[in-house]
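User: I'm new to structure prediction. If I give you an amino acid sequence, what do you actually give back? Let's try with this one:
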Amino acid sequence: MQINVPLAVGPLRLTVDPVRAGAYAREIGADDGRVPLAYPAVWLSEPALSKVVSEVCETLAVVPVHESQAFAYETSLTAGESYDLTVTLRREETPPRLIADAVIATTDGAPVGRIETMLRLVPRDAFSKGVDGSKGADGRETALGGAS
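Assistant: Good question. You get back a string of structure tokens that encode the predicted 3D arrangement of the chain. For your 148 residues, that looks like this:
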């Protein structure tokens, strides 16, 4: 895959699934009947987006590690409603990151909110080297030291 960033994905038409939003709310201890502010995080695993992130990381020989996420809203999300999510991926070199800037809009284009997700890009070979020089049972260094 040729990496040309920024790279836009979408708009993706997504719906706030009431059952999934309710389960998400219970998991985070916010079961007050409202859609949790962080609910759109589940949308970031949509195949159309996760495939692009996977391809970028495969090309760069890195593993994405979730670093941070921020949400800003103009209006609340409503369970059962559909929204358009447009994501722009961009890279930072120092430290190496892939950043997903997402815009949430109603299906008629009215702004709802923004999401910024930062993924630290860790070289894949860092997972086969020990941080303390330890080697696993197979003689290879391991990411956490000790036996692999």
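You can read the tokens as a compact description of the fold. Here is one thing that stands out. The radius of gyration is 19 Å.
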